[in-house]
Amino acid sequence: MNDFVRGLKCRLCGKNYPKKPLNYCEDDFGPLEVDYDYDAIREVINRGKIELRPFNMWRYRELLPIDGEPTVGPLVGGTPLVKADRLAEALGIENLWIKNDAVNFPTLSFKDRVVSVALSKAREFGFTTVGCASTGNLANSVAANAAQAGMKSYIFVPHDLEAAKILNTIVYGANLIGIKGTYDDANRLCSQVADRYNWGMVNVNLRPFYAEGSKTVGYEIAEQLGWRTPQHVVSPMAGGSLIGKVHKAFMEMYKVGLLDKEPRCKIYGAQAAGCNPIIAGLKAGSETHRPVRKPNTIAKSLAIGDPADGYFAIKVMKETGGWGDDATDAEIADAMLLLARTEGIFAETAGGVTLAVTKKLIDAGRIPRNEEIVICITGNGLKTQDAVADLVERHPVIRPNIDDFEAVLNGKRETVLV
Ligand SMILES: *Cc1c(COP(=O)(O)O)cnc(C)c1O
Ligand SMILES: [Zn+2]
What we know:
Helix 5 (137-149) packs parallel to helix 6 and helix 10 (241-255) packs across helix 12. The model has no long low-confidence stretch (mean pLDDT 96). By secondary structure, the protein is an alpha/beta fold. It is built from 16 helices and 13 strands. It has helices at residues 38-44, 47-51, 85-91, 111-125, 137-149, 163-170, 183-197, 207-212, 215-224, 241-255, 277-283, 310-319, 329-343, 349-363, 386-389, 402-409, and strands at residues 5-10, 16-17, 32-36, 81-83, 95-100, 129-133, 152-158, 175-179, 200-201, 232-236, 266-272, 324-327, 372-377. Bound molecules: pyridoxal-5'-phosphate and zinc ion (ZN). Pyridoxal-5'-phosphate binds at residues 109, 111, 137, 214, 236-242, 301-302, 348, 350, 378-379.
């Protein structure tokens, strides 16, 4: 019923391809993108119709590339947009919002959005085995959603991921394979496996469909602000896909009549200093990213040295009048604590990157202090606890009596047991 997809199209040369599990253009290796009939979509959707639907990402289903109803992840999305006044005050700014995908269902990161589209599409294509190459969150999400869908999964990750991200994959019964190497090594192997076994790899042969799921972050932000876009959005970057999709979402909403004014939102990208290929390219004034061979950062979920969408990420930052920056491990951990202590939100390291970079961009005058800013928090701190373990205070342990408690209250820590 939902046939607004005309096919796939090369993002570099515009060549058309059929609606198939394909990733690259055969002429120039440009990435393929879903090609929609926006005029037809404009005819059938409007704000009122969307507002009547359940608050999850599928309320924008006409703008997502599946043919039938979603069969995997039907409840994903619909996360809070939090007005962050205490954090705004700490940063010396006036108007700040947090899009909080740290509480996305079911695996606590924005990756549930891309996976629900990719696996619903994988089913339509007839795949029964799926998988991915991942820096952690995608692994968790493919594993959980494949389990719920009754699909087999094979997941390739760098072997030295955080323990919580490993366990949060295996627990769902996924076949997890640790690679002695970087994400880029895992990704290369995953592509070979996809070719040889004809499996549906969400960020390889299903990537054009997968990537569309990220747009729902943008749709939700604009709807939650009352059907308008903010002046500035700051997004973390790994493969560089999400940042471009937030912008695409705003432009599409205007195109199909969901926004009154043409969006003028400036888009900013955030990376870790220990793996900053896109920011290094941006700052050097080059057209595309500068690959990082050996990533070294606590923000492992963003540690992609050779990002697939680096070129497009730089383009969107420049063309919207935004910018970007990177943050050191110490800055990342400090920002995680700041977010937790001002807003009660425990974000993973990627959230620390986004907030630390936002602070830098404000301090450098790149983002004016009196304008409206939305920051994208994309993952949950419970998965990366080691990052802040050494920064938090030791808590006292006492005998269960009031004297011990009062000793603590009066700061006589030496009298208590620990
Ligand atoms: C994957 C991921 C990102 C970035 O995604 P890309 O679309 O690859 O740039 C951001 N934050 C978290 C927590 C992620 O897991
Ligand atoms: Zn092409």
